[in-house]
Specification:
4 helices; HNH endonuclease; alpha+beta; 2 strands; single chain
Length: 101
């Protein structure tokens, strides 16, 4: 990056998000549950996929509307430990289907 800027840090896995990494914005409150225009966080795409493979939109809105709550979820804790050993630009297909809305 220019001017010595650092890559943004993924709030879920705490790894840098290099410009070439697949990335996306996550609505902390799902758009379908009233979060349109609400706060978003920039995540690695693989981290974003894991959130939506783990939790339904209703669960996200009700119990997981903060990064701290997401990081504390048992399956996501395990995922964070696993992905933390991968390079910042790492991406792979998330096993299993996306959870229901």
């Amino acid at each position: 990056m220019e001017n010595g800027e650092e890559d943004p840090i993924c709030p879920l896995c705490q790894r840098p998000i290099p410009p070439e990494a697949r990335q996306s914005l996550h609505h902390l409150i799902p758009r379908l549950k009233g979060g349109k225009g609400g706060p978003t966080v920039l995540l690695h795409q693989i981290c974003h996929n894991e959130i939506h493979a783990t939790l339904t939109e209703a669960e996200l809105a009700r119990d997981y509307a903060t990064v701290a709550a997401l990081r504390a979820h048992p399956r996501l804790e395990k995922f964070i430990r696993w992905v933390g050993k991968r390079p910042p630009g790492f991406h792979s297909k998330t096993p299993g289907a996306r959870r229901k809305r």
